[in-house]
Design a protein that fits this description.
The complex is a heterotrimer of chains A (551), B (172) and C (114). Chain A has 19 helices and 21 strands. By secondary structure, chain A is α+β, with helices and mostly antiparallel strands. Chain A folds into 4 domains: 105 residues, Sulfite Reductase Hemoprotein, domain 2 (Alpha-Beta Complex); 159 residues, 2-Layer Sandwich (Sulfite Reductase Hemoprotein, domain 1), CATH 3.30.413.10; 93 residues, Sulfite Reductase Hemoprotein, domain 2 (Alpha-Beta Complex); 138 residues, Sulfite Reductase Hemoprotein, domain 1 (2-Layer Sandwich), CATH 3.30.413. In chain A, the strands form 4 sheets. In chain A, strands 16, 17, 18, 19, 20 and 21 form a 6-stranded mixed β-sheet that branches. A 5-stranded antiparallel β-sheet of chain A has the order 1-2-5-4-13. The longest helix of chain A has 23 residues. Chain B is of the alpha/beta class. Chain B has a single domain, classed as Aldolase class I (TIM Barrel), CATH 3.20.20. The longest helix of chain B has 12 residues. In chain B, 22% of the residues lie in helices and 20% in strands. Chain B is built from 5 helices and 8 strands. An 8-stranded mixed β-sheet of chain B has the order 2-1-8-7-6-5-4-3. Chain C has one domain. Helix content of chain C is 28%, strand content 31%. Classes of the chains: A alpha+beta (551), B alpha/beta (172), C alpha+beta (114). Chains in contact: A-B, A-C. Chains A and B meet through helix 1, helix 2 and helix 6 of A and helix 3, helix 4 and helix 5 of B.
Chain lengths: 551, 172, 114
């Protein structure tokens, strides 16, 4: 994975000093809150419902063990012993104190991490497929380009005060695990007719109060021209994006109002007149970054491991966990381990400092020192020998991290909601806990099969409810929370926006409604048909009938 | 409003002219774009210098034909969170090759200093309460920058190894 | 005579330093509990609260002061809005972490239940 050189280290450490100075000026009163707010936001520091919240960037979701240990250390020393992994592959601390934040950032800098641009109207942490570099059917590892974009977007002189926040996701695989269609810019590495790898570029996707699927603006762009093309997109947006209305300021609205064709024309026009070579990274620079992502020292292993095979036979729980949570690796004899942060009844995405330390230790010993954070709020050990899977599982069990529910009904995405977030209109975590407990029986979950339930505590949709097979949106009316249900959303390569099925439900009845929807699916599904496939075949009607007849 | 140029507070010799006011023969004046268009001929014969203030929604190409006669362009920041002027400045400098004074006006804060300089601004109207020391400190706070092809004092990775005096001078 | 307002209000904010939720008390100090909050019943009261809030913000003790409508049940003050009830009470989850060293969790659970 990428390592800082002197240049990167200088950048981050000066940024820490700069923020230390800004905090000091704020505390002294030289900066008003109004002046300080955008500055702290550019360093990932929010003032939330109960306290400050610090969002630390995990660039494209990749961590090493030292970094994970440090995240655990920060949770203990400066927070309350836990952290929350987010849908942007970041981690949030819920209780830092303002004067401590420069120290926290300094600790992060020690392990080559930062909180730069995890908030504010700038280019946010670039996310990537969590299986980048290890997925069995990948075209190419997209992380060198994610790193290139991280560097390019950091304190960009022209694009740091955009109309609104800006999110970029990248994948190197046909299967989309990064929800690229729901991003301001989605990038997919693919081969052109000549067999060369380049980028397919999508612009204008997003969630929020106006969910949209991104439009394709370029079928194929040479990889080396990526930053030039992004510059053109960003400039068109920066100059023309709406600034009169916060809810219409995202690039999706510009693309929508201009029409995808006209937007593309403007971008291509801008791109054509760019002084591109001047701003593009040199080949040496691309090679320098790419070299860090060279495959680690994999051993030459056999496809099957006798010990592992025996454990599969001997231990049913282990075999079920492998079936659900372990994915094929591109290197023979290795596997990708997905760690569920969704224990039944737990808080989605939360990990204690103890769990973080344990995962860091496992990564160091048994995953070639790598960990990934997923946008579905889980973690990944990407490089585990099949031989070690049983040991990893036992270790995970010991730390209550071995739930075999990846992609099942209890693998719920949930934003922090009104338990923490200053913008939320309703709580989302307690709803996810309630649903998780209701559908928690693992036999039942396995019977239901692939099901993505996603919950947001407000229309900003940080819980990705628009992309949920079952989406839940928490709202409030006269001091009472209520929940709207959408069906049929998807964030994968067949992306679609969930449709509202009807009037909302109270916090007491929403779980019943979800269960009725699930039961309806169980009744009407054809053999082998997933929830999403069944919904796409029959539409919303049977579900509506069932839900509104009984509730 | 105090004006910063070359790291110092300097006297502002430019006068912003109302659209109704008469165009003086002498003295340096800043006109609106409308006025500039109307006086396109007159400005070529006056002895004083002419500048123009551009709103954020003006396409820089609108001003292209006048550039040979213009020595200052002021771009506005209605709020310091409104970043359109960064792209306008960038376009004026690189696409249109404007070499005169590029002035940042409106809500301009010290914490924007590096960004402003890197897109090509070289003078800054700041609030009264901004000390020049804060401004200069902010300007020096980052010695390195990732983006190629932008101005500024910062070293880029391509500009060669960091000199010792550039690295870690932020709090000097 | 002071004009009556629609419902009683209290003044809340977050501390600048640790960011925690506080309410302006009858003695003019900022406390994590709304039980001892200064209850404004008239426009004159409100103006006084807002003035004190503005002063505290300018002196960089607190951030973003604002008024919250509450219901005075006799035994407790209950914010009318859900959001404000949550602020007064603290998170309803992660209690194993959030109850310790958090003054807010001590504030009535009934604030939310109500």
């Amino acid at each position: 994975m990428y390592r800082y050189d002197e240049f990167d280290a200088t950048f981050v450490s000066e940024r820490v000093d700069q923020f230390r100075d800004q905090v000091a000026r704020r505390v002294k009163g030289d900066l008003t809150e109004e002046q300080f707010r955008p500055l702290r936001l550019m360093n990932g520091l929010y003032l939330q419902l109960h306290a400050y919240m610090l969002r630390v960037a995990v660039p494209y979701g990749t961590l090493n063990s030292k970094q994970m240990h440090k995240l655990a250390y920060i949770a203990d020393k400066f927070d309350r012993g836990y952290g929350h992994f987010t849908t942007r592959q970041n981690i949030q601390y819920n209780w830092p104190k303002l004067p401590d934040v420069p120290d926290i950032l300094e600790h992060l800098a020690e392990v080559e991490m930062h909180a730069i641009q995890t908030s504010g109207n700038c280019i946010r942490n670039v996310t990537a497929d969590q299986w980048s570099g290890v997925a069995a059917d990948e075209v190419e590892d997209p992380r060198p380009y994610a790193e290139l974009m991280r560097q390019w977007s950091s304190l960009h002189p022209e694009f740091s005060f955009l109309p609104r926040k800006f999110k970029i996701a990248v994948t190197g695989d046909k299967a989309d695990r990064a929800a690229i269609a729901y991003h301001d810019i989605g990038l997919r590495l693919k081969k052109n007719a000549a067999g060369e790898v380049g980028f397919e570029i999508f612009v204008g996707g997003g969630m929020g109060r106006t969910p949209m699927i991104a439009a394709r603006v370029r079928d194929w762009l040479p990889k080396s021209e990526l930053l030039g093309y992004l510059e053109a997109v960003m400039r068109v947006y920066n100059l023309n994006g709406r600034r009169d209305n916060k809810y219409k300021a995202r690039i999706k609205i510009l693309v929508h109002e201009l029409g995808a064709e006209e937007f593309t024309r403007q971008v291509e026009e801008e791109y054509a007149r760019l002084d591109a070579p001047q701003g593009l990274p040199s080949d040496q620079e691309l090679e320098r970054i790419a070299a860090y992502f060279a495959p680690p020292a994999y051993e030459d292993l056999a496809e099957n491991d006798a010990v592992h095979t025996q454990h599969l036979v001997d231990n049913k729980d282990f075999a079920e966990w492998v079936e659900r949570n372990v994915a094929p690796h591109k290197i023979t004899g290795y596997a990708i381990v997905n760690i569920s942060l969704k224990p039944v009844g737990g808080v989605p995405g939360d990990a204690t400092s103890g769990q973080m330390h344990a995962i860091a230790d496992m990564a160091e010993k048994m995953s070639l020192d790598e960990i990934r954070v997923t946008h579905e709020q889980n973690l990944v050990l990407p490089n585990v020998r099949k031989h070690d899977l049983f040991a990893v599982w036992q270790e995970l069990k010991e730390h209550k991290l071995a739930d075999a529910n990846l992609g099942l009904a209890t693998d719920i995405i949930s934003c922090p909601g009104l338990d923490y977030c200053g913008l939320a209109t309703a709580r989302s975590i307690p709803i996810s806990q309630d649903i998780s407990i209701r559908l928690g029986d693992i036999k039942r979950q396995r019977d239901i099969g692939d099901l993505k339930i996603k919950i947001s505590g407000c229309i900003n949709a940080c819980g990705h409810h628009h992309a949920g097979h079952i989406g839940i949106l928490g709202l409030e009316k006269r001091g009472v929370e209520y929940y709207q249900i959408t069906l049929g959303g998807s964030g994968d390569e067949t992306a679609s926006i969930g449709q509202i099925i009807g009037p909302g439900f109270s916090s007491e009845t929403v779980t019943d409604a979800v269960e009725t929807i699930v039961d309806t699916y169980m009744d009407l599904r054809k053999s082998g048909e997933t929830f999403l496939e069944a919904y796409r075949r029959v539409g919303a009607e049977p579900f509506k009938e069932a839900v509104y007849a009984t509730h | 409003m105090p004006l910063i140029r070359d790291g110092k507070i300097v006297e502002d010799i430019w006068v912003s002219l109302d659209d109704e006011a008469e165009l003086p023969e002498q003295g340096d004046v800043i006109l609106s774009l409308d006025r500039l268009k109307k006086e396109a001929n007159a400005i070529q014969t006056r002895s004083g210098r002419t500048g123009v203030v551009l709103e954020n929604d003006v396409d820089e190409e609108d001003v292209e034909t006048y550039l040979p006669h213009i020595e200052l362009i002021a771009l506005t920041f209605p709020a310091f969170t409104d970043g359109r002027a960064y792209s306008q400045a960038r376009q004026l400098r690189t696409k249109l090759g404007f070499e005169g004074e590029l002035r940042a006006t409106g809500n301009v804060l010290a914490d924007q200093a590096t960004f402003l300089c890197r897109v090509g601004f070289d003078s800054f109207e700041v609030d009264n309460d901004q000390s020049i020391d804060v401004w200069n400190k902010a300007l020096r706070s980052m010695s390195v920058a990732y983006q190629r092809g932008y101005d500024g004092e910062q070293a880029t990775r391509e500009s060669g190894p960091l000199s010792q005096d550039k690295a870690h001078t932020s709090l000097a | 005579m002071a004009k009556k307002i629609s419902g009683p209000r209290i003044l809340t904010a977050n501390l600048l330093g640790d960011g925690l939720v506080v309410f302006l008390g009858k003695d003019g100090s900022w406390a994590p509990s709304l039980e001892s909050a200064w209850l404004a019943h008239s426009n004159d009261d409100l103006e006084q609260l807002e003035a004190l809030g503005g002063e505290a913000a300018r002196s960089n003790t607190i951030v973003d002061p604002y008024l919250v409508e509450v219901e005075d049940t006799g035994s407790t003050l209950l914010p009318v809005e859900m959001r404000e009830r949550m602020r007064a009470r603290g998170p309803s989850v992660n209690l194993e972490f959030n109850s310790k060293s958090n003054g807010h969790a001590l504030v009535a659970d009934q604030a939310v239940a109500g």
